[in-house]
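Quick one, tokens below:
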């Protein structure tokens, strides 16, 4: 949905900045870059998205993986109603079923966010950074590791000893392989 909304927003605001969180899939990033926009990445959570939008007026739209949508010109509020109206506009222009549009914007396989109970998140995040150094992991909202055909983000929960795993891949087979790998990795250190 964020990629569809970003398509309309970038028609109206060429070159605009679109904010999303660390675990939003690459369909949004790919679409924004292809249309000449710029992705701004922020921690997961509406409080971070809103604060960054407040500080950076060039950010026109924000979309989170959880289905929250923020619009600069509407006071940076989270509005499913505005998002739905923009989606209806997009749908009316295309004259094809929504299911066909879904396929156009669904180019990757992903797992639902998966939680792991752990004793201490910091040593696991540190070891991920070390053990996956060949992928130049990025530390921020947890650790994000990007390969050519998959990416994973492992981040701590904000209020309990959990690690949250998100993975996206170009194929189901790659996704399953990486899910096994990261599950075993985290569980062996939990």
């Amino acid at each position: 949905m964020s990629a569809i909304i970003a398509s309309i927003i970038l028609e109206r605001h060429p070159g605009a900045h679109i904010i999303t969180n660390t675990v939003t899939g690459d369909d949004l990033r790919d679409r924004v870059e292809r249309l000449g926009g710029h992705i701004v990445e922020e921690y997961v959570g509406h409080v971070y998205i809103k604060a960054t939008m407040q500080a950076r007026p060039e950010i026109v739209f924000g979309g989170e993986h959880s289905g929250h949508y923020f619009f600069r010109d509407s006071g940076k509020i989270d509005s499913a109603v505005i998002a739905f109206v923009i989606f209806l506009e997009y749908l009316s222009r295309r004259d094809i079923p929504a299911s066909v549009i879904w396929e156009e914007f669904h180019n990757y396989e992903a797992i639902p966010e998966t939680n792991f109970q752990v004793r201490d998140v910091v040593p696991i995040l540190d070891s991920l950074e070390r053990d996956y150094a060949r992928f130049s992991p990025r530390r921020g909202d947890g650790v994000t590791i990007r390969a050519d055909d998959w990416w994973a983000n492992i981040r701590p929960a904000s209020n309990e000893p959990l690690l949250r795993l998100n993975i996206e891949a170009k194929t189901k087979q790659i996704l399953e392989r990486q899910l096994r790998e990261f599950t075993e990795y985290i569980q062996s250190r939990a």
